[in-house]
Amino acid sequence: MEIGDIGTVGVVGAGTMGSGIAQVAATAGFKVVLRDISDAALDRGIKIIERSLGKLTKKGKLSEEEASGILKRISKTLDLQEMKRADYVIEAAFEKMEVKKEIFGELDKICRPDVVLASNTSSLSITEIAASTSRPEKVVGMHFFNPVPVLPLVEIVQGLTTSDETVELAYEVAKRFGKSPIKTKDQPGFIVNRILVPYMNEAAFAYMEGVGSAEEIDQAMKWGANMPIGPLALFDLVGIDVALDVLEVLYREFGDPKFRPAPILRQMVRAGRLGRKTGKGFFDYTERV
Ligand code: CAA
């Protein structure tokens, strides 16, 4: 399979990441089949795309016609079987190994044998996900960053069994999406999250210890380290549940206490304070939701 053979991209999961991936794929001219397990989830995903395209048209980066063409190239489905239409599949479902294994096992049966199955996992083992299929050489990590339409990086993750050919194809696909890919090994957190998430975690500890208010901690990192947004606002953007999942993986896989999640993160997840997506995290977004 070569990049020129890809006409339709399948995206499994229409959350923040899946919808962003569907958007950049459709913007690059691919047809997209976007799948989630409820109409509400699919509608929410399409809304995220519409909002993002709205920003881009307002800025003059896209015309109205281009934006409506992009939306028309995306078809929604509840049926995973529809992935049989896809020439390349990117999974962006929950960050739980059991969920990923089940989806990849199904995709392996549904998709043509030459189709590459990529995962947007931010920290789980690509090698382990690949082992749930009969095509482990065709399973690769394509880790996008939030917000997907804005951030250039895609980490291309080579599992122990991923072939060089599959890595090259994923690299080409990311470039065709207008992204700047970087290849990385299948180690917990890959490059970015191994460095970024412990930094965010330290901010959560500082917050718990009352070193500063949430506003002060974030403002300090913006003014003192030139960060585009503060670490606590970044938790809210990424999703506190998602960031906690990454920390749990780093903590478990490396067995190193430096990755111990700040207890407040677990409390916030239990309280449903997951960040922007639920209207409240370290900051309040209820007026914007
Ligand atoms: N779609 C399209 N455009 C968007 C957008 C979206 N979803 N979100 C923001 N933008 C655009 C804005 O329209 C604006 O455009 P202009 O520069 O042309 O005016 C630009 O992006 C900047 O946005 P804002 O002015 O609203 O706010 P900002 O300057 O704070 O930028 C941000 C927003 C791009 C999110 C920026 O704060 C940022 O880069 N933050 C860091 C994000 C980050 O670190 N992400 C990685 C998270 S880790 C991860 O994703 C991996 C994981 O596995 C956990």
Give a verbal description of the structure.
- It is a single chain.
- The chain is α/β, with parallel strands linked by helices and 289 residues long.
- It has eleven helices and eight strands.
- Strands 3-2-1-4-5-6-7-8 form an eight-stranded mixed beta sheet, with helices on both faces.
- Helix 1 links the parallel strand 1 (8-12) and strand 2.
- Helix 7 crosses helix 10 (240-254) and helix 9 (231-238) crosses helix 10 (240-254).
- The longest helix has 20 residues, at 39-58.
- The radius of gyration is 19 Å and the shape is globular.
- Bound molecules: acetoacetyl-coenzyme A (CAA).
- Acetoacetyl-coenzyme A (CAA) binds at residues 52, 55-56, 59, 122, 145-147, 149-151, 193, 196, 228-229, 234, 238, 242, 246.
List the helices and strands and how they pair.
Elements: E1 8-12, H1 16-27, E2 31-35, H2 39-58, H3 64-72, E3 74-77, E4 88-91, H4 97-110, E5 116-119, H5 126-130, E6 139-144, E7 153-158, H6 164-176, E8 180-185, H7 192-208, H8 214-225, H9 231-238, H10 240-254, H11 263-270
Parallel strand pairs: 1-2, 1-4, 2-3, 4-5, 5-6, 7-8
Antiparallel strand pairs: 6-7
Helix pairs in contact: 1-2, 7-9, 7-10, 9-10
